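Exercise 7. Predict the joint structure of the components listed below.
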Amino acid sequence: MGKLLGKDLICTQEWSKEDLDRIFKLAFEMKQDRFGEKYLNILYRKQFFMFFFNPSVRTRQSFEAASTELGAHAQFLEPKAMRLKTAKSAGETIEDAAQVMDRYAYGLGIRMLENKVTYYGEGDSLIREYAKYTKMPIISMAHDKFHPCQGVADIMGWIEWLAEAGKQKTGSLATEFDSDGLVGKKLLITWSQGALCRSLCSVQEAALLAGRYGMDVTIAHPEGYEFDPDVIKATRENCEARGQEFTVTQDPEAGYEGAHVVYSRNWMSSEAYQDGELKKEEEIAKAQKYTDWTCTAARMKRTDNGIFTHPMPIDRGAEVEDAVASGPNSCIFDVAENRLHGQKAIMAATMAGFLD
Amino acid sequence: MGKLLGKDLICTQEWSKEDLDRIFKLAFEMKQDRFGEKYLNILYRKQFFMFFFNPSVRTRQSFEAASTELGAHAQFLEPKAMRLKTAKSAGETIEDAAQVMDRYAYGLGIRMLENKVTYYGEGDSLIREYAKYTKMPIISMAHDKFHPCQGVADIMGWIEWLAEAGKQKTGSLATEFDSDGLVGKKLLITWSQGALCRSLCSVQEAALLAGRYGMDVTIAHPEGYEFDPDVIKATRENCEARGQEFTVTQDPEAGYEGAHVVYSRNWMSSEAYQDGELKKEEEIAKAQKYTDWTCTAARMKRTDNGIFTHPMPIDRGAEVEDAVASGPNSCIFDVAENRLHGQKAIMAATMAGFLD
Amino acid sequence: MGKLLGKDLICTQEWSKEDLDRIFKLAFEMKQDRFGEKYLNILYRKQFFMFFFNPSVRTRQSFEAASTELGAHAQFLEPKAMRLKTAKSAGETIEDAAQVMDRYAYGLGIRMLENKVTYYGEGDSLIREYAKYTKMPIISMAHDKFHPCQGVADIMGWIEWLAEAGKQKTGSLATEFDSDGLVGKKLLITWSQGALCRSLCSVQEAALLAGRYGMDVTIAHPEGYEFDPDVIKATRENCEARGQEFTVTQDPEAGYEGAHVVYSRNWMSSEAYQDGELKKEEEIAKAQKYTDWTCTAARMKRTDNGIFTHPMPIDRGAEVEDAVASGPNSCIFDVAENRLHGQKAIMAATMAGFLD
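Solution:
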């Protein structure tokens, strides 16, 4: 186990499983005792800086709530007004800006993806440049490659819903961290139609984490919508290390059979960035041609009473049918809630050394 | 008396008078003891979400201050960046967004009126759709039909200023809730010129509440600037139930004679929305023709030492003469301050069950 | 010593040196004990309103952090959305807006300079108009003429770095207020190239304060980049009262010889505002002609082991060479940090009467 105070969280793959286990355990405890005395002042009167290069709903709301609940204050900073150097604009160097912020704040969250980067990986590079110049932890609030906080929330939700078959029907979710319930369970991450042209961060993070936690992972997508090869390689190794299968397929029907978790989501193609620009219109037009790629109630019937998961917002009717998204096996609101608890645990650990 | 925890406040008319009385009583107590120990942690470390589809000065400032003073944190959320479904744009469904927010926050304020709706009543419908999907209370921060928090602040200010004749001259305001001072007092709500093209929410809420609290209500406006017929009907019933007069007139001189409270304000005409759009330019041009509609010092002389009230911002010189707005009988700053205290009471009651 | 509760801080020159000394003393104590119990609740649950007519990085971050650390809440208010009367737009009068804010908040910071004013001095006038209508203190967060909080941070940083020669090399900075170390030390404020077209507020505030604290002050700039004559006059008087030299020169080489503090920065020319508009493009084009005006490592060698200071953001390569800005004698990050501590002291004194 490493020291977590000051540790950046850019991708869960860079953390040991032991350290992640500690985060999950704390997150479940915090969920059980949301306003417990022992958590209320972990970050008493400290600042958490949030850089939203891209806007967000859940990420903003959950990080700002997490900060309050730990006694901190989240500063909502709009980089566009800050004359900071970014992928797309000149301005104050990251070296200068980051070193000043390190004097004021105890943690810095950064969101940079989609149309705010000019090529896949640029957001990741920028986040790492901030990390280079700060002693405080840098936490990805979603970037072009990874979305560690979403990954943590996903795993928490799946543990809760798969803990004991059928429990979800009664609303009685698992109340403590025990990841054994995930071992050998089948996860299907399947591309779907959708007009949102999203980055791969959430699905890539989910694949990596699922592999590490012993799930059988299938990734399905049309040709041209491949994951980052490095992520594929790491996910395969993660699965193999746990003795699980890892499959990549271009068949929209594949993976549903016997699946326990179905993660149906749109993401951009490998050709999305051209000449330093996200070709959003072209991407949306192209995606809409794959009419057979959607998560239907009929397909869900072939699963093993599988749950539907999604990081939201959902493009209903395209990514998934309403009957599935609003159905009894949809864990989306619990996963969304887990953003809060997971992030509280991450902030407590990295910004205050609560687990050291 | 009903349970107030989780109760939405979209219009005061939907609350029992007993419940409103309890809010007024608490609001006056909170005003007397602004940082009293017993109020400081009513919403300790909780989130209040503020959705400002339309910007605001007093509403933002007073709700954010109210949140702090109760131990909560107000999140200033800009729906335009949130890809939410609104009257004017597609995006994430309210069903999805609201159910997630319900996991993070303990109350949600929504402001939607004027140019952010496409027809009168659309803001009201949208607020009620949020209310449908949340367990936490929805509080209108002003919408096209009603403005309950302004109404509460108005009544508080009028109670203070009318409590004992002449007391306002010494700055010694009433210090506890006693609405008997309003019974039989004459309220004139009069349309006025002005270039702001405001929604009817404030004046409609004031008319409804004044009737319930036993005031004699006169509404004066040029032809074409009628109130919502449902509001007229309810106000008439409110007045009749208290044995008071209710008058609607198109005479700009009417209602001043013997008035105790004069509320002079511009509002949009019944033709303001055309083809799904607020015709602001046309409205302003039309309003400026009614040069005889303004609250002058000369007219105020005909009142019974009447006070001038307005929810602000004031279009000075159009809605009212400076001599009146800045005169000794202007209660505008006390009413504005009451926004804070009234909202603290409402939030404490609906978000924490402080009065249950 | 005067009473500081409610006292505006628009320029340090308007405060007695005794009162400034008290601020510096408190600021150093607060820096030594950042989360000390006795400071944490000075502004418990109070509001500090921040009006950013112009955006900012450090000012926003440090004021918002200062508020949190004193138990207050900083409201980030965007005047552009508030329909307030400003130099460039009609709207609600300051008389009305200010008197309402006085009911909600305990302090108001205002930032207005550069392209948000139409002539030099207009920001100063607007701030003073707010001050006229409020009982709460108005704190300049930088305006066209002055930047008192930057001045306080500068002096703190110079005291720390000049306290004992060479101490900066070990990172062991002065830990209490003793301004004797500044007496007789040579300060060079030199104009430099740069594409930012900044207001004179920071350099003018620094010159005034340095004179009062006994420094020998040299101001160097090309013809046409003169300081405000009133500031020149006051700085000369400040220096003479302490028996120190005050020099104004148009020689880019001047002032480095034996200097202890070099403050190299771009600022706009006396012709920057034309016809009610900041001619930014023309200013930048003009400034770039003065290629000899930059702070080089070679020039710094002629100083007395002088430190480099700057309020940031730095236009590296234009205002100063990287070797200087990132060199061992650069105090920029400590000065930036001092914004936080200085502002905490100012807020505690003026908003809560902590020193009265």
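Discussion. Chain B is about 35% helix and 15% strand.
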